Model the fold of this input.
Amino acid sequence: MYKHKIALDVGDVRIGVAVSDLLGITANPRETYWRKKGDAEADIRYFCEYAKKEDADMFVLGLPKNMDGTEGPRAEVTREFGDMLAKESGLPVVYQDERLTTVSAERMLIDADVRREKRKQVIDKVAATIILQSYLDSHTF
Done:
């Protein structure tokens, strides 16, 4: 039985969300979730419910690495979020290198002639889509 994969581009204020098709071929942007300030547990609960609603079998989190491949403080924060998510959801959490995904998302939106105000509203879910598509392209299900 095929299931969806959910990608998250985890930020301090917003989390971009993308979901795969059932065959694991294409990633689709879904939403930009605004984090509950100071309440990571509420964020985790939201995504646990989201995974049930989407009938997902895993999370793919974008891992913000430094350009030299090392992990800094942002990667540590993302891994902590992923650990909490795995524990509460019972689903596996994998990490996908997200270097330059936001830059790529910004370029795509500029090339598509999306106005600056609109870009701010959609950049996170577009970045999540790039993260998920990169993961899907590198794995066979």
Q: What stands out?
A: The beta strands are 4-10, 14-20, 27-34, 56-63, 93-97. The chain has four helices and five strands. Helices lie at 40-54, 73-89, 101-111, 116-138. The first strand starts at residue 4 and ends at 10.
